[in-house]
Amino acid sequence: MRKDTLAKFHETWDNLHPRPGAGRIESFRPDGLTGPWSVEIGTILGRRRPDPARPGMTVTGSPVPAPPIESGQEVYLGPGVTLMSHGTYIVATRSGYVLWESHIIDVVPQYELPEVEAASTPLVVDGDLYVLGSIRGRSLVVSGNLIVAGDVRQAAVIVGGAIQVQGTTENSTVMIGLEQYANSQAWHHIARIIDGLYDLELTMTDLERIAHQSVTGPRFGTTLAQVIATKFTDVLESVQWLNQALTWPGLRWREAYTRLVHELREHLSEARLRETFSLAALLSLRTHLELLDSESLVEEIRLGRFPLATQLQHVMQSQIDSGGDVTIGMARASRISAASVIIQEAVVGGFVSGEHQIRAAQLGTEEGTETTVEITAPQGLLETEVAFPGVVLVHHGTRQILTTPQVGVRLGPEPQTNVDTPA
Fold it and tell me: For residues 180 and 321, what is the distance between their CA atoms, to the nearest angstrom?
């Protein structure tokens, strides 16, 4: 066979086979730049060089679809970037620092505050935040990472990325995982509203029986506005929370749910109640809340976040919740839950729950302070250098109470002989 005929044969044969896309993305990061890449809105960050996937064909002429991109090879664009010029150039849609990873490209805003003082309204930050001082008496929502050089006291902090507190965390709540927290709290408040509207229906039925007429219109609206303001504050608080959470950054709420929240707020407003109150409208909204899909109310948004480990120094009388790993210097009378918990010094009092691992230098005290530590996964591992009487160890449902000091306790999937008999 002649060489040119053979080459043509191979080309034809190759064209019969489907081929996945093989595009690449080129970064325009300035040469010689060291450290983070800071850009302004509108900056061209790079270029997309597509090589589209190609379908194939069998020898009989039947089409063969192109294979999809292998899982884990996709590159996503975060909310801080977009494609322009016919999908070729990657452009910053906000100012900040460029995150250019193998799986995501984004521009992350970074802010700095001297401190966060007490206030009744939450502080909401889209991006990363560095607090030079302390956070006191305020709710704080951060879509990215949070670093606090001082203390966190009597505060509620929710972060989408990770948190580091170099001072003391006391009488506070710290939630790591904005999407999970927002979704669970939304369902909690929806349940409160549904229960409250059932109670409201009974209240209005009583009023109707007393008045012998329909409970619709401005006459009853005036009375109802006063009743709701004094007797149904839990409903109003929950509607306010749901409406406020709609403005949190890094979240995309489902459209049907968002519409319901807006309608609830409108129908329960004092002006609407006094002017055109309709019990039927509120009961209809209650039904729609009950019929909401039980899945997540929040749609996933892929966000770029700079890697940061969650670390807290001294935790006192606080609640820490995380779906990832948490490192804590010392914990006293606190409730801590995470996938993995590392306590560098001691856990004294309270409850610590880890899914895969808990490691602590010390559990409890010589005084016998009740301290509970639990591993939830069957293959999870619990280790401590010393554990004192009053410590309760729970491993995948098996409960053990220590009555004597223990040294080198290790609970895992292997049988154990150096802890007290289960109670």
Answer: 11
